[in-house]
Specification:
This protein has about 280 residues and is α/β, with parallel strands linked by helices. About 50% of the residues lie in helices and about 10% in strands.
Length: about 280
């Protein structure tokens, strides 16, 4: 169990990463070995991935896991790694402000020093929560965390670039409005995930118009880290994409073995038994 002082120290470190002049990359883990690999490689913070957690349990993404599942993963990570851990709590696993606050409290009590909170409803008729309702959630979470004496970093995610029903011509203005509203309510960072829609000019507009650090997710259209640094992006998340890359490797291994009768994909770059065991220490 992490001590409150240790958690407070990690929370301060995590907050400083978002306010530093240099960009940082947050790796998203779905289990202890993946988190340990990222930490040993030099990543300065680890986040959970709701997709990765759900997939590891044979479920789809989109609040198909519970806060108990997320808390259990957070506890395992906090117990095994030394860098700050942030919890992906999706939309809070509740429809009421009180319920979302309790979800955030559970993550905090498990040792997390940050959360992702998204504004997607998964209701095609009303794809995003009302902006004022989302603000109230953020204010309430901030108030709860303040009483705990730990600065829980709130990464407020807006799904304006993910929801297909939103008019593409208004996405940027809606994102800016929501980002600033969430920052005003107490969010520390604004997360704008996309499906390849964010070009450098759009990213620059987000950085200039939203009065908070901007978090994006790495993908096929994402410029290199050096370019993102120039633009002013504060944080890059990897989301579920490392796990999906791992799935691709599993697929190549399976096909090679069955089609060619050889094992090079399985053996090339594989950790030894002893190296793999160090991930569990």
């Amino acid at each position: 169990m992490v001590s409150k002082q240790s958690q407070k120290t990690k929370a301060d470190v995590f907050l400083k990463l978002h306010r530093a002049p240099s960009i940082f990359v947050l790796a998203n883990a779905w289990d202890v070995p993946s988190a340990r690999i990222f930490e040993m490689a030099g990543f300065r913070a680890i986040g959970t991935t709701s997709y990765g957690l759900a997939a590891s349990m044979g479920r789809h993404d989109g609040q198909q896991v519970t806060i108990q599942d997320t808390v259990a993963l957070v506890r395992r990570l906090v117990d095994k790694i030394n860098v700050p851990v942030s919890a992906d709590i999706e939309a809070g696993y509740a429809e009421t402000i009180e319920g979302v606050v309790e979800t955030a409290r559970s993550a905090l009590n498990a040792g997390a020093v940050g959360i992702n909170l998204e504004d997607s409803t998964r209701n095609h008729k009303l794809p995003l929560y009302d902006i004022h309702f989302q603000q109230e959630k953020i204010r309430a979470i901030r108030g709860m965390a303040d009483t705990q004496g730990v600065h829980l970093l709130i990464n407020a995610r807006t799904d304006t670039y993910l929801e297909p029903s939103i008019d593409p011509t208004s996405r940027l203005s809606q994102t800016i409005a929501r980002g600033n509203a969430y920052r005003e309510a107490g969010a520390d960072c604004v997360f704008v995930p996309d499906m390849g829609d964010l070009d450098p000019a759009t990213m620059k507009a987000l950085v200039e118009e939203i009065k908070a650090p901007i978090n994006i997710i790495a993908g096929e259209s994402t410029p290199p880290i050096a370019k993102l640094q120039e633009i002013g992006i504060a944080r890059v998340s990897l989301g579920p994409r490392v796990m999906r890359a791992a799935f691709g490797l599993y697929q190549r291994i399976a096909r090679e073995i069955l089609h060619d009768g050889t094992f090079s994909n399985m053996l090339t770059g594989a950790l030894s038994y002893e190296e793999a065991n160090t991930l569990l220490d």
